[in-house]
Design goal:
Radius of gyration: 49 Å
Strand content: 5-15%
Largest sheet: 4 strands, antiparallel
Number of helices: 3
Number of strands: 9
Strand order of the largest sheet: 3-4-5-9
Length: 273
């Protein structure tokens, strides 16, 4: 009886010990699974953080560095013609005659657009031709002279240059379409060529020819008005000096004087400088 009780006690003890080991083992496995699952979730969250953060910062960087849209420049590259065709053009300098960068041909001194001054009138049978618009064309020099030679007041050299640069259509009975910047003082060479033939013919006071170029201006006819046998400024200066040449059309010579000297002013445009 005592042996059975002892054996029973050993079996129960063994049974109890095995149960505890099984429960411990099951608990260990459950904990391991939870640990693995937790570790896996932590890895996933870490990867998500790594992937999402750079994308967000990159997007923020792109957004923050995106330039503010600049003013849109109307495209002029495609110009439609009347026949329905399209030609690719560039408008950096504008179309001919309406240059948007440099102004129209004959643009004014300020660089803006303006009208075109009338071309010289032509009559090959004469030296001087009255163009009927306040100008007289010289077929020898190609110059266009102001018909009213003494319309502008006498002035020193700087003031004379400024006065002729501002001359325009509507001034001095001009109807030639000219604008400020078209007119200028004649050069020394232009005065010399203008007086040359009259000087050779012995003309004086003033030393200019008539319209035909066959006689002195005093013999006529002449398209000019109010011409004086006096001194008229040129645009040519003496190098290194505050002096400029002027035409002495009383005697047909070129002289020079200080910039501060007050002389007559006779504008021209065109010609070959």
């Amino acid at each position: 009886m005592g042996k059975r009780i002892a054996n029973l006690g050993r079996r129960e003890s063994m049974s109890i010990g095995c149960g505890d080991r099984i429960r411990v083992r099951l608990g260990f496995r459950a904990g391991l699974r939870k640990w693995c699952l937790g570790t896996f979730m932590a890895i996933l969250l870490g990867l998500a953080t790594i992937l999402i953060a750079p994308a967000g910062s990159t997007l923020a960087s792109i957004t923050s560095t995106s330039p503010t849209p600049s003013a849109q420049i109307p495209s002029t590259r495609n110009t439609l013609f009347g026949n329905g065709g399209v030609r690719v053009t560039r408008n950096f300098q504008g179309t001919r005659g309406t240059n948007t960068t440099q102004g129209t041909k004959g643009g004014n001194a300020a660089g803006g657009a303006r009208g075109r001054a009338a071309a010289p009138c032509v009559d090959k049978t004469k030296r001087y031709v009255d163009c009927g618009n306040g100008t007289v064309a010289d077929s020898v020099t190609g110059l266009v002279w102001l018909k009213h030679s003494n319309c502008l007041s006498s002035a020193d050299w700087e003031a004379a240059k400024k006065a002729v640069a501002g001359l325009k259509n509507g001034d001095c009975m001009l109807t030639d379409g000219s604008s400020p910047g078209d007119w200028r003082l004649p050069t020394q060479k232009e005065w010399e060529t203008t007086m040359e033939k009259a000087l050779d013919m012995g003309c004086s006071g003033p030393t200019l020819t008539n319209d035909a170029g066959t006689g002195c201006i005093t013999a006529g006819p002449s398209s000019f008005t109010d011409v004086e046998a006096d001194y008229y400024w040129s645009s040519t200066t003496l190098e290194g000096q505050d002096r400029a040449y002027f035409g002495d059309i009383d005697h047909g010579h070129l002289l020079n004087g200080a910039f501060t000297t007050s002389l007559r002013v006779w504008p021209v445009r065109g010609g070959q400088r």
